Amino acid sequence: MQKRIDPFLTMASLYLSVGLLALLGRLTTGMGLTETLPRLRWLLIHFVTIGAMTQALFGLLPSLLASVGATESRPTNASRWRQWLLLNVGFPTLLVGMAAGSTTTAVVGGSFVLLALVSLTVTVFRLSSRPRGRLGRFYRTAPWFLVVGVSMAFGMLLDVHGPGGYFGSIEAHVHANVWGFLALVAAGTLLHLVPALDGTTLRYPTLVPVTYWGLTLGAIGLVSGPWLAFHALTFGGLSVYVVGTVALLVNVVGTRRASGCRPDARIGHVLGAYLWLVVPVPFAPLVLLFPTVVPGAPIETAAINGLVFGWMLQLAMAFLPVAAASTDGRPWSFDLEAAAERAISPSWVELGSLNVGMVAIWLTALPPFSGIADALTLGGFSLVALAWGVFLRELWTALVADSGRGGNVSERPRSTGESAAD
């Protein structure tokens, strides 16, 4: 049977490919071989965030709801193509506006992205009007944080801010999109996919509500605190968020150990990703309380790079090839059992290269290494580019491979991981 390629995952793969080219362009600029392009850093970041991760999550959210037992219905083709069109008209327009410094163009592009998001949110809630299972609420809550994050972006473009000013809006924007939207989807997906791919059950189902409420309430504090310039709310949200994250990792590691499977690079990517998510945690209070002593700007730059390339990109490396391999020939759906047979496991070279690169990038934020910061940045992003290239080869291979590969997947036992979490 000829495999049908998911249009959202195809666009995510294309944007990741363009993002790698942008990173290579940044490296040539750092070596003095080319002239710098305006706003290249932020364009590169948005290739990964809106360009790749948002595309992938738009494509996968309805299928993820179905796979965790939250819905038995399917979205219409018309609604899904409408979302795809709005997103893929809006994002390039937004990029053009950012590159050209045109607020009007950027606002028009952002408006299309917001319309696509509203349409997706309606789809998600229609599909889960009678939700079943604890994991479905991760996916139902996540889009609301993206709505807030996009609204904060409009505030920055139009110079409309809360008590926290422009920098408070930036923090709220990043926290809503990353620590809220993406983190909730990632948590629900990890709690489902790790036991499903190993053919086992979730090790600690009672920790699922701890993860959900820890991430949700923590993200609310992390978004509202900077916007309101209320540090106590930010610190409180951060503390609660750490509790939810620890509960998630205990479940992931415990499930993996209980399954008897050997350690692999995919779980290494998960653990590495969450390492770079929590690295900024001890720095945040210091930057806020001692701004004249602790170098806030370098730490903020390293933290954003860590969230985008250390966390987001690394989670994509762990699971996007699985999602791409799992499309089963029907639109807007995937088959996890088939994915377990067909998906290419990430390589250890990819894992090591990316995480060593992130160590180098984070060292640039520390005063003892300020004298060699440029060299560390160049070396760190070179290693990230190497891992990125290996990942793209795996992703495109999984995306276009014929669905008949991998043998008879129907003989593989169906996972009962979600039933244990209900």
Helix/strand layout:
Blueprint: H1 7-30, H2 40-67, H3 77-100, H4 103-127, H5 136-158, H6 165-198, H7 208-228, H8 231-259, H9 265-278, H10 283-289, H11 296-325, H12 336-342, H13 348-363, H14 373-400, H15 417-421
Helix pairs in contact: 1-2, 1-14, 2-3, 2-4, 2-6, 2-11, 3-4, 4-5, 5-6, 6-7, 6-8, 6-11, 6-12, 7-8, 8-9, 9-11, 9-13, 11-12, 11-13, 11-14, 13-14
Outline the structure in words:
This protein is about 75% helix and about 0% strand. By secondary structure, the chain is an all-alpha fold. The protein has a single domain, classed as Cytochrome C Oxidase, Chain A. The protein is globular and about 50 Å long. The protein starts with 6 loop residues before the first helix and ends with a helix.
